[in-house]
Design goal:
Layout lengths: L66 E3 L19 H7 L27 H11 L4 E5 L2 E4 H17 L7 E5 L5 H11 L3 E4 L6 H11 L3 E5 L3 H7 L7 E5 L7 H14 L12 E2 H8 L14 E6 L9 E5 H14 L14 E4 L6 H13 L3 E4 L6 H8 L6 E4 L1 H8 L14 E4 L6 H11 L3 E6 L6 E4 L13 E2 L4 E5 L12 E6 L6 E3 L2 H7 L6 E9 L5 E6 L4 E3 L2 E3 L1 H9 L4 E11 L3 E10 L6 H11 L8 E5 L12 H7 L1
Parallel strand pairs: 2-12, 4-5, 4-6, 5-9, 6-7, 7-8, 11-12, 13-14, 14-15, 26-27
Antiparallel strand pairs: 1-20, 2-3, 9-10, 10-20, 15-16, 16-17, 18-19, 19-21, 21-22, 23-24, 25-26
Amino acid sequence: MAKAAKTTAPAKAKAKAAAKSDTPKAAAVPKAKTTAKSAPAKTTAKPASAKPAAAKTKAAAAKVDKPATAKAAAAKPTAARPAPKGLPKAITELTAGLPEKPWLKSYPKNMPAEIGALPYKSIGEFLVGACKQFAGQPAFVCMGKSITYGELERLSAAFGAYLQARGLEKGARVALMMPNVLQYPVAMMAILRAGYTVVNINPLYTPRELEHQLKDSGAQAIVILENFAGTLQAVIARTPVKHVIVAAMGDMLGGFKGAIVNLVVRRVKKMVPAWSLPGHVTFNAVLKTGATIAFKPPAVSGDDIAFLQYTGGTTGISKGATLLHRNVLSNVAQNSLWVEDAYTVKPKPAHLNFICALPLYHIFALTVNALMGMQQGAQNVLIPNPRDIPGFVKELAKYPMHIFPGLNTLFNALLNNEEFRKLDFKPLILTLGGGMAVQKGVAERWKALTGCPVSEGYGLSETSPVATANKFSSSDFTGTIGLPLPSTEIAIRDDDGNNVPLGEVGEICIRGPQVMAGYWNRPDETAKVMTKDGFFKSGDMGFMDARGYTKIVARKKDMILVSGFNVYPNELEEVVAHHPGVLEVAAIGVPDEHSGEVPKLFVVRKDPALTLETLMAYCRENLTGYKRPKYIEFRTELPKTPVGKILRRALRDQA
């Protein structure tokens, strides 16, 4: 597909001024003061936050066992320090004339601007602390079986001891390839406690994708659900994996129930293709053996690598975001402060439930569900297959829903289920929307049904992940991604790295203690996304209003360039999704000899009677000329990531 032509004279526009009310209205999308093509900064600069500063990397980026980090001033990971008084001239010029952190005046009451010193040096230490504090309370529940915090501590120690006995050295990468089952939190906590690095892998990966991630990460061990063992069998000989631990769905459900579940999964539903992995060990055998071995806690610091969190692959070859213990702990600290705002509206219950429908191998659920849930002493309700909406709803009926992280497609699917609408939503405290833009129509229907607004946030694998969020005490859907979390800075910049005025579109750049150390073994890619003054270039285009709220208008590479005008897919999708006959919609740009590019829509119909002519007429009524789609294609479904995010790239490849 031809690349979009460069804008030579982009139009400027200001966003509508924010309303004086406590919650801003969604601002109109201004035209961008940027080109469609990015000019990545050629720098080796490392994140140098004005908050807890980025720490030293222990080895050069070129070494196989260390991440490709950028160079910058170092600081102790647990210390939050104020910005230096004398900023370099280049940075001073970038920020000249802009209000200093306009978002702080919009912060919730009593919300600190900084997170302060981190109470733990490592994630393992943090998780063990949570397990001791909440020992008798349920931590995770799946298919009716729960494990307490105390049991999680004991099981993870046994699992960690087994890994240590295999001779794995500190820092070894251990892959996890499982859906949301009880074995995941046990293995994840064990790996981190033992001083190893978790490599999360999507269980639906093809052999080619799995081979790439295992080889790129250098994983020496893998914990995999037997349903996907055939994929590993196809590539293991070409990877560095030496130790294979195979789990089954029923492993931790108890003797009789576990046996029945395994029988149904293997024989009735035939969900386990034939596989052969000589020398593998079963998950339960690992727990049994590990229980006879003394676990030896290693010295793990904030500068050690906790996760290699591979980018979703929606924008090309998947890269490993190197997340240090202090990066993730900082994000837990930031989120733990922000969530207190929700409890000013509804008090925190004695027994808190998080709904965990998003996969734990994804950074959103990993931090917001698993780690934040444990910080809160909550029970995470694990949903192995959220695409089975009827089965999902049956699980939801069993537990009071308090905190519900999800994304637009999931909320939309639930709202269209009759049984979901019959559930009791009175306990619901907080609905978190992330992963993709939450559409206004979906948010309005969700609030009308549940009485709880969708609070949209924003983040990436590279930021551990949460960078911004709306105020959880707000009763309205803002249509923005909210305010930067404590100790986080957002800058909106043009292609030359200059800050643009408030209300103008540029690339969203993020600086804070949660920003990754770099891409694993990819100094070239790290240099493209890190600026000299320590900001991470997100690749998302947006603008900040006068009150510090940011609105995303498009991915930089998703923008459609029509005769020199920038058209934002998010805006088109938002408008078309309001049509009552539309279930789902995605917008892309396709080549056009006259305009360079024109918009094309892919639509899944809610109303089978919806016609092309009707939808085209609707677009003419609601979109200006150059924004109107030239083509509309009806489909029965849209390609999505396992999380449910629509893959525009796949649609471009098919267009």
